[in-house]
Amino acid sequence: MKNDNGRILFAGVAALTAALFLAPATAHAQLSGEVDNDLSQKSGTDSECAIAKNPSNPAQVFAFCNTTGAGMFAARSTDAGVTWIYPDPSDKTITDGDPGQGPTSCCDPSLAWDTFGNLFITYLGSGASVETILSTDGGATFSNLATFTGSVDQQTAVVANTTQPGAPVMLQLVWNQSGAMVGRAAPVTGLGAVGAFTPLQSTGSSGVSFGDVAISPTGVVVQSVTPSSGQTGGNIVIYRDLDGLGPGGWTGPIVAGTTKVGGFDFIPAQNTRSVDPETGLVFDANPASPHFGRLYLMYTDEVVQEQHDLDIMVKWSDDNGATWPTPPIRVNDDATTRSQFNPKMSIDDAVGNIMICFHDCRESATNTAMREYCTAAASPLGAGLTFLPNVPIGDGLSTSNQDGFDFGDYSGLDYSSGEGHPIWGDTSNSTGNNPNGTGNFDAQTDRVTGPVPVELMHIQIE
Description:
CATH architecture: 6 Propeller
Structural class: mainly beta
Number of domains: 1
Helix content: under 10%
Number of strands: 32
CATH class: Mainly Beta
Shape: globular
Radius of gyration: 20 Å
Distance between the termini: 13 Å
């Protein structure tokens, strides 16, 4: 039922909220995937990928990965990931020096797609720079947006709808500059309408490795960092920018938890490149959610130091990261002592449900072969989270090719409109069309449905 302004009346909101958040327990026993899709199908290694879905047009999906040689692999879909095409079909890469495809790149892809339809593509440039390019047509063409120079690393871009004055959408960039995490933000007021970036603001951190960044519905920016070296781990630290686009800058540090996984932790499945805690942050941005504004923190932990039994954990904060009173919840449900690593978390903003996908070695007796697994939070109505059973999404087992690229430092995932799109580096050749067979990584993806019925996900609460 709607009033004259088209807003759902209070009674309708209550009923709809109950339907949305109770649906997982009754509608789906578990997630389900499809046949995997090898996106890159080219010689060399394609891994460490980002993927994003257009919230204003869920049929549009964009993937962006590190690749062997010049540029970065890029693919886009106009049918929600069923089929894929390339912005540059001649070499399947962008940011490689071709005109109109952005400044030349080194690595480290990051994607953010706002509700106006702006796709922000961020990466490290071939020089000492953080590069951001913009697409307003679903990843078909690109324009240069911003270049920031210095001793830079570990950059990420995020966007969110906020209540910040004059900024219905906020774009936030963070990166490591000369050992400290820094950030700049910009207001976005429409398709292609990006305002000036704020001055550089530093957290003052040192000796840390970047984890993730998220923006609250009110415009508070939160980022997580972890130890940058070693194998023994340490504190998971939070920094906050309480006024977003304002002049206030970062506050902290706040200790959100601890992990036994270090910044360079060598495990059997990735014993050349190593892994890190790979923290993730997402806010519940659905106004009808019983946990509207809740901040979820995901990270990798180790049960016993240097025994390679790695687990994926989640905890949360209800005050924008100021306090973290809840004990962590274990996400992986295996009964083994093997490694889960390179997790990625995404939240469906329309509902508030969470999906987490990760590399899982539970099927490997030697703890060296991984398959992509996914799960989702099934009961957000309660005080805590109840995760659905972990489901194998990858169609084959992948192992390192020992070339230094390996699985990369992270994998990608976007979960919206009731459908998840994980992406990972894969050597299984389960699809049979990797030109290098099992010798090199290709960018592999799948479509994962659940746990909320799709028809409910399309109802917008205004």
